[in-house]
Amino acid sequence: MATTPEGKVKAAVRKMLDRHGVYHFMPPGMGLGRSGIPDIIGCKNGKFIAIECKAGKGKTTALQDRELVAICNAGGFTFVVNETCMDELEERLLTWIS
What we know:
The protein has about 100 residues and is α+β, with helices and mostly antiparallel strands. The protein is about 40% helix and about 20% strand. The protein has helices at about 5-20, 60-75, 85-95; strands at about 25, 40-45, 45-55, 75-80. Strand 2 and strand 3 form a beta hairpin. The longest helix has 15 residues, at about 5-20.
């Protein structure tokens, strides 16, 4: 099965989270649940993590932005990641969970 560019980003993020012992899951899409929920939800040391994965120059939708802002307003960590900012995600994530 071919992996999409966004699928490769998701796999790299999940591998990073595993490496740092972060509990995480990917909420099901396909019209189930609420629209705009980030691709990966996680938690470590009682800290909530939400990561939206994009490929290339992909942009978040208005619904995704709404959810990311709501999570930030509730005190959670959010990040929109693509292939070019994986190192920044890891650096900020490690600061957040320490």
